[in-house]
Amino acid sequence: MSTERMPNPAVLVPEAMAALMAVNRAVAGAGVDGGLLALSHLRASQINGCGPCVAGGVHQARQHGVSADQVHAVAAWRETPWFSDEERAALALTEAVTRLADRPDPVPDQVWDMAAKHFDQKELAALLLNIALTNAFNRLNVPTRQQAGTW
């Protein structure tokens, strides 16, 4: 495995890290279950291959009481019985938003409508901000080859 290329860019620009963490705190206080936010973070980080964020997502999920079955099976959530309709809607939205370039209609109405059925606008906003923030951290960690477990 390659070594780290440089510290996380947000660590090198402390004001940036402070801003990212402020967004994270705002999302956490917006009324969406912390376990659901952790599952969303974990799933996006798995897609993006971000080791530190996968490890952090697992830790965060366990802190919020997410079951071991869910944590271990989140990558295959469609094929398991362990996720509620609300969690499925959030995970489908997470995958669509994380993979914007993979299809002509990146977030199909079916995915959006299912999420909107389970979350009000403020909660949807928090979920979208959580997905965007996760993707931002993934895009800082992956190119700089940050390693899980080194913090």
From TrEMBL:
Gene3D superfamilies: AhpD-like. It comes from the Bacteria. Residues 14-95 form the Carboxymuconolactone decarboxylase-like domain. GO terms for molecular function: peroxiredoxin activity. The keyword Zinc does not apply. InterPro entries: AhpD-like (IPR029032), AhpD_core (IPR004675), CMD-like (IPR003779). Pfam families: CMD (PF02627). Keywords: Oxidoreductase, Peroxidase. SUPFAM superfamilies: AhpD-like (SSF69118). PANTHER family: 4-CARBOXYMUCONOLACTONE DECARBOXYLASE FAMILY PROTEIN (AFU_ORTHOLOGUE AFUA_6G11590), BLL7811 PROTEIN. NCBIfam families: ahpD_dom. This is Alkylhydroperoxidase AhpD family core domain-containing protein. It comes from Micromonospora citrea. The lineage of its organism: Bacteria, Bacillati, Actinomycetota, Actinomycetes, Micromonosporales.
